[in-house]
Structure prediction request, 267 residues.
Amino acid sequence: MALPLNFWLLFAVCMIVSSIGFKNYVWFISLGYGFSIAAEGLVMLFMYGQALSLGTILCCVLFIIYGCRLGGYLAFRELKSSSYAKNMKGEIKEGKDVPMGVKIAIWVTCAVLYVTQIAGVFYRLHNAVADNIWVYIGAAIMVFGIVLESAADIQKNAAKKINPKRFVDTGLYRIVRCPNYLGEMIFWTGVLISGFGAVQGVGQWIVVLVGYIGIIFVMFSGARRLEIRQDKNYGSDPEYQEFVRTVPILVPFIPLYSVKKHKWLVA
Prediction:
């Protein structure tokens, strides 16, 4: 399966942006993630120029909004939030002891994930497929995902300002315990749907599904890490135990309340 040159150019963009992780190990999957997605959206706007349609312009702009919002939020939290730094002390390592070979492997793997995540929109442009209803449905779902994730972050920050030592169980957190991760999954589901009718052949669909399944896996892995951390911090609180017992961890209306025992969810 031959990948087009423009796909490799986007991969190179992700490699450049996510190389920030060599400064701080976790930035490969935080700042490098958000800003890589934004950069891909921007580069595709320039790369395809007059070949862009209303639907693909909308999707590329949403990549930029999504990536800048997420990257900016994470940058502020990690660099400016003293409470976050205090709470996460010892939980997140800078990676100074991680071998360079491992860092390079993580760097390349992350770049592969980030470029495959946007493949549904990329192949619509590469294949020069005109807009159809799916690109607009996908874009609408992407907007909903951004709004949901943003609202979850705002609600969590507001709750932590009132009581920084309590778990968050208000607003969207009454529906699922990780609504920000749910917003992420909804956003990328929109990207997947936007490619319907445009992605051609088994090879292209493999690329698209690698990105989609990969990010869904990462979200469940992140939910598992959060659950383990919250159990450590709040496990003795009866209200927290009731919260965990009654509120699904990631997907609403599906009685999946815990993933901490699934050790294969490691990313």
About this structure: Residues 149 and 180 are 4 Å apart (CA to CA). The radius of gyration is 19 Å. The first helix runs from residue 5 to 18. Residues 5-246 form one domain.
